[in-house]
Write a structure and sequence with these properties.
Length: 153
Amino acid sequence: MTIIERASSQDFLHICALDETVHAGASRRRFIGEACAHGRVAVARVDGIVRGFVIADESFFEQFFVRLLLVHPDFRRRGLASALMRAAELDCQTEKLFTSTNQSNLPMQRLCDRLGFVKCGYIENLDEGDPELIYVKLLAPVPSAPPRDTGEE
């Protein structure tokens, strides 16, 4: 059974271990720790074990941005990435949700296409010879707070 939910403090080490399994040598513990502390991480649990996670925040020109999406290789093509991206959409507090991926990352590009994201730009020279493609998904307007009744007319 798969459950998508907000990461708890007990998930931190499991998220880091998964990240290091997929990206050997890339230590992102500090980044992951800060994201967990601020409630910016959703996890995908399969039979109670963290098998994927997503981190999204307002780091992209004050717009929500999926900064990191990761699913264990043995659990890919099972809908976890789609479910995690939908969780990021639900958390999004802006009318647009952005993400990015390398031009060489065809699975992520296909995921973005399936989920209704559209290419809106690219950045050269982050990874030599592999431009970063920027995607956006236009969401429903975020409801604003209703006007407060002050009793004055």
